[in-house]
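Annotators were shown the component list below and the corresponding predicted structure, then asked to write short factual statements about the assembly.
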Amino acid sequence: MEWGPIILTFKLATVTTLVLLMISIPLGYWLAYTRTRIKPVIEALISMPLVLPPTVLGFYLLIAFSPSNFFGRFLNDVFGLQLVFSFEGLVLASIIYSLPFMVHPIQSGLSNLPPNLLEASFTLGKSKTVTLFKVLLPNIKPSLLTGIVLAFAHTIGEFGIVLMIGGNIPDKTRVASIAIYDEVEALNYGAANFYSIVLFGIAFAILLTVFLINKGVFKRFWG
Amino acid sequence: MIQLSLYKKLQANHGEMILDIDIQIQSGRLVAIYGESGAGKTSILRMLAGLFHPEKGKIIVNNQTWLDCSEAINLKPQKRKIGYVFQDLALFPNMSVRENLLFALDKGQKSDIVDELISIMELHKLETRSPDTLSGGQRQRVALARALVKQPDLLLLDEPLSAIDHQMRSKLQDYILEVHKKFQLTTILVSHDITEVFKLSDHIIVLENGRIQKQGSPSEVFSGKNMSGKFQFTGDILSIEKEEVVHIVSVLIGNNIVKVIVTEEEANDLSVGNKVIVASKAFNPIIRRIG
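Structure shown to annotators:
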């Protein structure tokens, strides 16, 4: 019985969520206010992980990152990045896989704000960045929280994409979901049960916390 | 001096409408743009603020060009020296009253102005409250104060008092007049309320379907010609009662009910709910319907 896979799972989920937050805030802002015609195309692309089997995504990432082709070799030679069967590769795959879970709540939160808040801030001489961080984001805290939790939870629940691109290397790519599968294959039901129960308990605790907080948040905003 | 010429096709409720106006406004005036809803009033304010772009047009404020479509000049809203009070006020719910005002400070600007505005608008007791907990009139005062923090040249008010009850409205109108004079602002007010326009503005532009129908001083615009009254007020008729040979008309002016005696002939032209001017020449009050 080891804690390694559990720790790795949470490390992956934390890193993925943080990076996603940094990507999704500008992306959600852009999607909420843009009038470009290609917006539906971008939205469809971001939502692809919702419908595609993770194995499809994993398969193409595996091909793309493989050192045997140009792109993979380029990453390896120039940045020293090996994305196949490595933690970095898992992070990148998780980011793509969980992107809609972070972008959608942020985008819809921003779209539901009265447009005058943004305009009022502009007429008060404030830039887009100041407006975003001081006016818009503080008013969509419930959406941000939803995005963070969904992205985090979704990353914990990853399996197919990790299997395709990460493999099963202890302390590098062997996350809890893979470990469970591995233990079951080896007929170690006790170990599989241990990982499963820990994941079950933690997932429940996270979601419960969110609902409790949200209840409080709603009370404060609309009570 | 503000020169404004704007042209834009708008999608109105009843189909396409062309907004085509050419206005000059002297500095220091309080100008009302009056018209039915959908006449294009708010669009004009939004174009002045840089939040909405005309197809053709020019905006020059105090010799500074804010917009010139033929030269591709278009100052961002942030660069235009305006204070804008939105119809729904757009107070920031995540900030207290004082924080809303502090947020509006320019970089390096001293916060003295915030304290001054809090005192003018009598917001002392509300400083730490969240905008969500305030009444309509209180929110209005906060929005007006916030729009004045960066000491704009031009104050734009979009139906500022539409959501406020009658008694509060009169008081808020006094606040608007006070800051307009104190900060030597050029103020443009959009309204469809004649009483309000009459009380506040010294110049009225009547807008109909995107075009200027007439403009002039309030009494010129609404009574056809200047009545040269010694004093005049506008109000709403509350009741008309017949007493012997005359009729007594009760008019609500601000918070006061004024009773005016009219002949039967005059009374026929009036009905409850009409907006009227009550004016006095020499000694007899004149009452005339304006809406």
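Statements collected:
1. Chain A has eleven helices and no strands.
2. Chain A has one domain: 4-222.
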